[in-house]
Amino acid sequence: MTTNKKVGVIISVYNGENYLAAAIESVLNQTYQSHNLIIINDGSNDKSFEVLKKYEKYILLIEQNNSGQAVSFNKGLKLDSSEYVSFLDADDIWPSYKLQKEVEFLNSNKQIEIITGLTANFKGLELKQQIFHPIKGFMLSASLIRKKVFQKIGGFTEETGTNHILDFYSRCQLNNIKTCYYNEIALFRRVHTANMTLIRKDEIYKGYINALQRHIAKLKK
Q1: Is residue 26 classed as helix, strand or coil in its secondary structure?
Q2: Which of 8-17, 70-79, 132-141, 201-210 has the lowest mean pLDDT?
Q3: If you average pLDDT over residues 203-208, what whole number do you get?
Q4: Nearest to residue 86, comparing CAs of 16, 182, 186, 181?
Q5: Higher-confidence residue: 19 or 162?
Q6: Which of 71, 119, 126, 132 is paired with 151 by a 20 to 30 Å CA distance?
Q7: Rounded-to-10 torsion of CA 173, 178, 183, 189
Q8: Is the distance from CB of 163 to CB of 141 less than 8 angstroms?
Q9: Distance between alpha carbon 70 and the CA centroid of its chain, in Å?
Q10: What burial class does residue 83 get, using C-beta atoms within 10 Å of its C-beta: 0-12 exposed, 13-18 middle, 19+ buried?
Q11: What is the pLDDT of residues 74-97, one digit of tens each?
Q12: What are the pLDDT digits (tens) for 88-147?
């Protein structure tokens, strides 16, 4: 895998053997091909490593002890030197046009720092099984971000547990990071029984409250 690409794509996987290949294939099948794919295996103890080995020539594979998604994403950011960066959960899927549309938009709109599309939840192994109505709102995996955003506000906060993405978005708002939305699906988000939002929902809800409290405290300064 070469490193002089326009876009860096970062995936963190922990025990994602069932859906990981589909996520990787959705990146490799992008119509926009000038991208690096960095995958951090976050201490998986299932067969994720075996799945990753099949794609060895297409990816930069990093192994680490289980440290959490925020640590993985920050490691990927340090390894990547691309102008734009995008993240994908190991159980989700991108439509083939996702990077193409977002790269073209950021290339043409220099003042915009983050572009994000719609998210459509779906159930099952195949997209065609059940797709729900697309929703609008910030979703990290539906976005393309200028790398300079992380130079401005820092990487993902590793002390926030599972709420590093909400914390990141909060800091974007506080620092007036210019974000634009477009009305096409940029992410198919898989709903299944092992979703972190279901398994650790109490922890996540508490984290939401803590992140909002930090946001409010910063606004008062």
Answers
A1: helix
A2: 201-210
A3: 53
A4: 186
A5: 19
A6: 119
A7: -50
A8: no
A9: 11
A10: middle
A11: 999 999 999 999 999 999 999 999
A12: 999 999 999 999 999 999 999 999 999 999 999 988 665 555 567 798 989 999 999 999
- Residue ranges of domains in the chain: 7-153+176-192
Residue 181 to residues 61, 138, 173, 199, 200: CA-CA distances in angstroms? 31, 8, 14, 29, 29
Residue 113 token pair? 């720092």
Q: Which two tokens stand for residue 166?
A: 């909400």
- Tokens linked to 46: 């299932």
Give mean pLDDT, residues 1-25.
88
63 vs 191: which has the higher pLDDT: 63
- Angle between helix axes 69-79 and 164-174 (nearest 10 degrees) is 60
Tokens 């030197």, residue? 81
CB-based contacts of 109: which residues, under 8 Å, 6+ apart? Answer: 115, 180
Neighbours of 138 (CB within 10 A): 17
Cα separation, 143 vs 28, whole angstroms: 17
| CATH architecture type of domain 7-153+176-192 | Alpha-Beta Complex (3.90)
Q: Are strands 60-64 and 179-191 parallel, antiparallel or unpaired?
A: unpaired
> Contact, 70 vs 164, CB < 8 A?
yes
DSSP 117-136: EEEEEEESSSGGGEEPPPB-
pTM of the model: 0.86
The mean predicted confidence, pLDDT, of the chain is: 87
